[in-house]
Amino acid sequence: MTTIARLLTRRIAAAAMLLPLMVATSGCMAPTPSASPSTGAAKTAAPTTQAPAASRADTSKVTALPPMKVFYGDGPMARPRIANADLARDFIDLSFRLESGREMPVFTRFEGPIRVGLTGKVPPGMARELDNVIGRLRREAGIDITRLPMGQTGNITINAVPGDRIRRELPAAACFVVPGISRLSEYRSARRSARTDWTRLKERDQIAIFVPSDAAPQEMRDCLHEELAQSLGPLNDLYRLAGSTFNDDNIQSVLTGYDMMILRITYAPELQSGMTRKAVAARLPGVLARVNPDGGFVPPRVMAETPVEWVRALSQALGPDGSPATRLRGAERAVAIAEGQGWNDHRTAFANYVLGRLLQIRDPKRAEAALLRAHSLFGQHPETRIHAAHTAVQLAAHAISRGESARALALLKGQDAIAERYQNAVLLANIKMLRAEAQDLAGQTAAARASRLDSLGWARYGFGPDAAVEARLRDVAALAPRGG
Q1: 184 — phi, psi (to 5°)?
Q2: Whole-prediction pTM value?
Q3: Fewer beta carbons within 10 Å, N or C terminal of the chain?
Q4: 470: helix, coil or strand?
């Protein structure tokens, strides 16, 4: 049996900053919008209430947070400009191999209308998030998919269950997806049977997704996007895909334009469940000419294959069970392999990003050098602008810790717009909190107060419980040098 899971360690890799990561997994307060969605990127969840001053002097005494902010709109939906030769290669690699490396003997998908059930301890806001992504799947991927009335099971059944129940089955998982069942109560008895083995499927007809009901709203939403996409389409992740959720770096929070294109190909009428790799490859040129007509005029990128040794080294670096020394050796090995391959792409950048995170307490100077290398590489391509926003946050934190307010503000300039476009509230809140600290250092007290206040609504969506938001404020405030 192979379970496709969104791992907590992968989320940590994407969300961490100079401070210890705050993983909010309980006390979820989901949004309850009071007005119809606008065309803007965000709205608050309720009318404005009295907000805390939250200055550097009182971040440990925040008692009343402003309303949660939520995202509206479709997120990073722009269709990528990609060669059909690259797209064909990606599609085959995504569709005929599992993350474990096991080969899929035949192509599988749902045949006919797809009906999605939502059951369990469904928190407020979860149905709204599900309806948003289902709407995008209909519009952007052309999939016949609809949500059923609350409590019904469907072809795909999303079960909202407490996070500790998920971790009881898979200790390192934030959420997961399994074929052949509808309820968590069926999982243990079915987990070693043929019906839950993806490689034995001839067609997809019944799939269960398990999402934490008590996670922060962003974690819940990210799980919905990733697991729903994998229940519908590719089961593999590829590090070479920077602009995709089908990537173990976990930088992308919501389904991208590339992901929707892959799913549109998956449900092309020219393809059917049960087709072999060779048969699918033979049909792809015609499918791609229709789905991506400009792709015939785009030069292929010819990105090198990712060696399994690099993937293993990075897995060691991100593994939850390794000692700090073991994880550091994994990151150093990943960087060495990437540099030895001559890569100047996001894979080398991500290895340096992970190395920088692991070194930040032990060797801040070396950590900053690794982060600078990552930031430079991420900044070279529009596809990795969201990646560069993550490294900018790391570097700004280093600058604040040295009292370099001007450098921190320069690094953070424009990054909140990127985080908002890619609908990452954790990143957006961190950017605004760090900007507030840099503004305080620069003597811009009023601006700092406004930035800090603006961060809180996003922090409630990204981190969840008030206590987690307040702890993040304190940790960010602790970066700035005191006295003197």
Answers
A1: -65, -30
A2: 0.88
A3: C
A4: helix
